[in-house]
Amino acid sequence: IEIGKIQEIMRITDVEGFKMNLPLRTNEKLWKDFGLGGHIGYGFKNREPAYSGYAQVKLNRKLNTVLQLGYTNEYRRIDYQYNNFMLRENPLVTGDADIANTIIGLRTGTRMNRRKEFMALLSSDINYDLETKLVYRQIEMLPSGWLPMTFGNKNIPSIKYRSLVLAGRLSFGERTYEDHFQRIHIRNYRPLIYAMLQAGQFETRNNKGNYAKFQATVKQDVNLGFGKWMYILQGGFTLGSVPYPLLDIPAGSESYGYTHDKFSLIYSMEYATDKYILMHNDLVTDGLLFNQIPIIKHLNLREMFSFKFLYGGLRNSHKSILDFPDFVYPVKSPYMEIGVGVANIFKVLNLQSVWRLSDNERQGTMRWGILGNIRISL
């Protein structure tokens, strides 16, 4: 038995205050093809416990076929993306408020709400390059100040929904490292393709209905000879009318950390769409400019550029299910942001100046910022 994900061990959020978690899991020394895990936590501000638990069993070693069952009663970010399997390929990323983006990031996690979640997952390899997942979820989302649930003058106590997701991951000659139930993908310069089909049913106090979603993503790092271009291209759509938390929410950021797969100057849940296309682009050169400057060239600095784009639509029929809060907007015109910066500072730090090019009229939008991240270069 060992400590689970270390990034879950503590965090600070506006609703929980300082929260301690004890994440535990079994390892291969106890059972090779079976695992138990979970966490128990306590928030010192709201004085509420939170917990999760899961069991998993490997049914076929050759195809890496795994069945997992789990239950979670926890606060999550209101824009938490359950089906972003690509994001959670990085074992250090939770997609939620954790020690990295709160305590180490010197900030308090905001925009949280309570959820009760049951999950059953069956994953299996079809061949060396194609991985599949079949996921059933049953989730109850409770309202909060950041996730209001009203219809007319009536408060809605919760949103309940059930969904079945079929997801596929296609790579080309990519190697993997297996660590018990954790798979680490060793990326190459070939495209990585994700596709997801979801069918679901929701229920509120006044409404119930069915919906379907489709999403496709292409991600690739391209070696240009003079640098590296990294891009993510994604599109998706929703069939049927749904409560606004079930719409597609482009991932934004409320910190000064730069992330390749998030928009830098969109705040969390600023936009909602039922059809969209987005693209993230990052270019890091091999010092085309800095290597020509005396003295500076010995610092091994690298130029970096970014361009991010979002366009989508939103039908008014979703408002017949649940009222939209005043901080959620449709994408009325293409959203764009650009960045210019310096990479490989002391072989650790990247800094970038980012400008928001569109939809700047609303009060509270962040039009410009200096953002950074840590990336170790050897």
Characterise the protein shown here:
With 378 residues, the protein is an all-beta fold. It contains 1 helix and 21 strands. It has one helix spanning 100-104; strands at residues 2-3, 10-13, 17-25, 34-43, 49-60, 65-77, 112-125, 130-141, 150-151, 154-155, 159-170, 175-179, 182-186, 192-203, 208-223, 227-239, 275-285, 302-313, 335-345, 349-356, 368-374. The chain has a 17-stranded antiparallel sheet that branches. It has a two-stranded antiparallel ribbon with strand order 9-10. The protein starts with a strand and ends with a strand. The relative contact order is 0.10.
Secondary-structure-based class equals mainly beta
Q: How far is the first residue's CA from the last residue's CA?
A: 33 Å
Radius of gyration: 21 Å
- Secondary-structure element series: EEEEEEHEEEEEEEEEEEEEEE
Average residue-wise pLDDT: 92
- Choose one word for the global shape: globular
- The number of strands is 21
Q: What percent strand? A: over 45%
Query: Uncertain spans, ≥5 residues at pLDDT below 50?
Result: none
Oligomer: single chain
Question: What is the topology?
Answer:
Layout: E1 2-3, E2 10-13, E3 17-25, E4 34-43, E5 49-60, E6 65-77, H1 100-104, E7 112-125, E8 130-141, E9 150-151, E10 154-155, E11 159-170, E12 175-179, E13 182-186, E14 192-203, E15 208-223, E16 227-239, E17 275-285, E18 302-313, E19 335-345, E20 349-356, E21 368-374
